[in-house]
Design goal:
Rossmann fold, three-stranded parallel beta sheet, UDP-galactose 4-epimerase, domain 1, binds serine, 16 strands, six-stranded parallel beta sheet, alpha/beta
Length: 315
């Protein structure tokens, strides 16, 4: 049995992770949300509470009420929107995290806070980016992610708090749209294909980035928290990868299924600048060695599944 609080349960990851956790665990799996209420299915399948990551007192109330033992802290602004609202990105990303860690310290909860490919920067080796390497990101999103990794490790070393996390690639899913990320194009192109619209790609041809299908992203979040702690050399955060592609590759993969899809490039300098500073492909061998990370989907199998599910959703 586990009692889990998901902060940010209405978001792209939270909406699916909360449902998955309810499938797996008995106990209270609490959907924490701020302004946007989660979908009906999420609200009706278990407890939900308003929890703002910036309100430590409220986090503590909910943790005490449901005897929470694990917190998934997913509150964050994605990379492109964080460039428009850097102070809010800092506030939600880091003050939200330190609030969560302090409550977790008091109530002895384990904490998962996702990091990202955004935690790397232009001076990081871009190909087979190692687990332990240079992290000098130039985006506000990346700055909050590096600081979040360090803060989470600090609470582990100083207080013995069970903090663990992964560096997510761009996440592709069909349930809830991401909002304002550099990798969002790789979700939007599937919607355009199903709707029969031309796709206008904000990133240039040849821009390689790590990507991951949602079922693997959920598996990563659950497997890392279930991992045997005695095997963990690292904690915050593990590189996790499953596929790396550039816009032309996802376009070609969809075109095999929907030959009428058309795409043109209209590069957004903000997103392109961010994408150019991120890895092309991470080396995730530490995650494979320390907790048996093993993703299921590649570009072809993801594309078939995305299109099948989006057809049901949209038509
Ligand atoms: N998907 C995120 C973004 O593009 C990266 O972690 O902001």
């Amino acid at each position: 049995m586990k009692n889990i609080l998901v902060i940010g349960s209405a978001g792209q990851i939270g909406s699916e992770l909360t449902m998955k956790l309810r499938e797996i665990y008995s106990g209270n799996i609490v959907a924490g949300y701020r302004s946007t209420k989660p979908e009906k299915e999420l609200l009706e399948s278990g407890p939900s509470e308003m929890v703002d990551a910036l309100d430590a007192k409220r986090i503590a109330e909910v943790v005490a009420k449901y005897k929470i033992d694990t917190i998934y802290n997913l509150a964050a602004l994605l990379s492109a929107v964080a460039e428009k609202k850097p102070l809010m990105s800092w506030n939600v990303g880091l003050n939200g995290l330190i609030n969560t860690l302090e409550v977790a310290r008091e109530y002895k909860c384990a904490v998962f806070t996702p990091s990202s490919i955004g935690a790397f920067g232009p001076s990081t080796p871009h190909d087979n980016t190692p687990q332990d390497t240079i992290q000098r990101p130039t985006s506000m999103y990346g700055i909050t992610k590096v600081a979040g990794e360090l803060l989470s490790d600090y609470y582990f070393y100083k207080y013995g708090l069970d903090t663990r996390s992964v560096r997510y690639p761009g996440i592709i899913s069909y349930t809830t749209l991401p909002g304002g990320g550099t990798t969002d194009y790789a979700v939007e192109i599937y919607y355009a294909a199903i709707k029969g619209e031309e796709f206008v790609c904000p990133l240039a041809k040849g821009t390689y980035l790590d990507m991951m299908y949602m079922p693997d992203a959920l598996k990563a979040a659950i497997d890392i928290m279930e991992a045997d702690p005695s095997r963990l050399v690292h904690r915050n955060s593990f590189n996790v990868a499953s596929m790396s592609f550039a816009p032309e590759h996802v376009y070609e993969a969809i075109k095999k299924e929907i030959p009428s899809l058309t795409m043109r490039y209209k590069v957004d300098p903000v997103r392109q600048g961010i994408a150019d500073s991120w890895p092309n492909k991470m080396d995730d061998s530490c995650a494979r060695e320390e907790w048996d990370w093993n993703p299921e989907y590649d570009l072809t199998s993801m594309t078939k599944d995305m299109l099948k599910n989006l057809r049901k959703k949209i038509k």
